[in-house]
Amino acid sequence: MGLASYGEKNSAEYAKLKSLIKLMPDGGYKIDMQYFAYHYSRKNGVSQKFLDEFGPANLTGDQWTERELNIAAAAQHVVEDVILHLVKRLKQITNAKNLCMAGGVALNSVANGVIAKTGLFENIFIQPAAGDSGTSLGAALLIDVGILKNPRRYIQKDAFLGPSYNFKDYEAAFERHRLPFKAVERCDLYRDVAKRIYDGNIIGWFQGRMEFGPRALGNRSFLATPLRKNMKDILNARVKFRESFRPFAAIVIEEDAGLYFDCAAPNPYMLFVYEVKKEYRDLLPAITHVDNTVRIQTVNKEESPELYSLLLAFKELTGYGVLINTSFNIRGEPIVCSPDDAVNSFLHADIDALVMGDYISEKSVING
After folding, report:
1. 326, 286, 271, 7: which is closest to 114 by C-alpha?
2. What is d(CA 4, CA 246) in angstroms, rounded to the nearest whole number?
3. Burial of 94 (0-12, 13-18, 19+ CB in 10 A)
4. Please, which residues have CB within 8 angstroms of residue 132's CB and are 6 or more apart in sequence?
5. Rounded CA separation 1/85 (Å)
6. Positive or negative, the Cα torsion across 233, 218, 221, 242?
7. How do the domains of the chain map onto residue ranges?
8. Side-chain half-sphere of 257: how many Cα atoms within 13 Å?
9. What are the C-alpha distances in Å from 360 to residues 54, 198, 310, 317?
10. Which candidate, 97, 90, 100, places its Cα nearest to that of 138?
11. Could you list the pLDDT tens digit for every one of the 368 residues in the chain?
């Protein structure tokens, strides 16, 4: 998705890739399987015929050619074409006001934003663990409702379904690793952390129950300022070590989302990409992608009180209730789950402070 923004939509590559998929009148589609290998090969997603037509793969991950950028753009736009074809037919058949989506493709936040922009549906719900991992939740619900015949009694409002910990767990983790830490009153903590972020610090933020799904939604996150243009490069150089074309997502106070972005509905799971409004693109440079878009998560007081309070403190300090949010992990490892995971990542990542509950540990104090 991120690389696609650097390519041209109406390229020769788009025309060729589009020709491999035939959209059917009934809403379905047919794929020319001569060009693909994923259904019989564990190693290759495309066939030699695809490589002959589109050129060799870039295995180095850098110095992208115009052809490669256009292929990325073509793949994204063809996915959007097919999804729009499906949902338009679905709307025609059902006239439904609500759309629910699942499956790995439903994690394509750019395509989701395109669907939202059509206005076909009043509400769009995508389960935050829409990929294969979400089948565990589906299995539990099937047993509870389908087999045990229990009434449906739960409406999902957040993705915080994982383990939670208390202040004793935080203290024990710090002490096991012999890290200095201090407790800070909540109201002071939010102002303190907001000031650190404004000053360019990268903060490890660990609160409440862990998120369920592939996105860090503010309980296991690295947080940074969106106001510095070079913060994306700083995060990549110091912490994430990922491809330079990949943008960072933003968290925003729910009631302010429409101020900065063309966002008309709450988006608590970071599953939609929206345009940054023109007047804020230069003011929020670290989250504004090359095509002037951003993947956002809206935050409200009910579901994420700690994160909401931090955003309010940052807004009081800077005028903007927006932060960079990326997953709390170092390269090659999963998102941290426990306090010990968080401390271990804190020690091995080049971040400035770790906040767990009401406690804060500073790297500068550790390093002397």
Report:
1. 271
2. 10
3. exposed
4. 104
5. 19
6. negative
7. 1-94, 96-156, 167-367
8. 26
9. 52, 17, 14, 20
10. 100
11. 899 999 998 999 999 999 999 999 999 999 999 999 999 998 889 999 999 999 998 877 778 899 999 999 999 999 999 999 999 999 999 999 999 999 999 999 999 999 999 999 999 999 999 999 899 988 998 999 999 999 987 778 899 999 999 999 999 999 999 999 999 999 899 999 999 999 999 999 999 999 999 999 999 999 999 999 999 999 999 998 888 889 999 999 999 999 999 987 899 999 999 999 999 999 999 999 999 999 999 999 999 999 999 999 999 999 999 999 999 999 889 999 999 999 999 999 999 999 999 999 999 877 76
- Which residue is it, tokens 């074309």? 245
What does the longest C-alpha to C-alpha distance in the chain come to?
68
Segment holding 91, helix H or strand E: helix 66-94
- Cβ proximity of 57 and 51 under 8 Å: yes
Amino acid symbol at 93:
I
pLDDT of residue 268: 95
| Residue 284 to residues 5, 194, 276, 292, Cα–Cα distance (Å) | 18, 16, 9, 10
Count of other CB atoms within 10 angstroms of residue 14:
21
How far apart (Å, rounded) are the C-alpha atoms in residues 348 and 105? Answer: 33
DSSP calls for 145-185 = IIIS-PPP---------S----HHHHHHHHHHTT---EE--
β-pairing verdict for 98-101 and 123-126: parallel
Residues 6+ apart with CB under 8 A from 311: 251, 252, 253, 299, 321, 322, 323
Q: What is the pLDDT of residue 181?
A: 96
- Nearest Cα to 262, choosing from 279, 249, 275? 275
**CB contact burial 54-87 (16+ within 10 A = b; e otherwise):** beeeeeeeeebeebbbbbbbbbbbbbbbbbbbbb
Tell me which DSSP letter residue 47 carries.
-
pTM across the whole model:
0.93
- CA-CA distances (angstroms) from residue 301 to 157, 259, 268? 12, 18, 12
Secondary structure class of 270 (helix, strand, coil): coil
pLDDT of residue 368: 60
Which CATH superfamily includes the segment(s) 167-367?
Carbamoyltransferase, C-terminal domain (3.90.870.20)
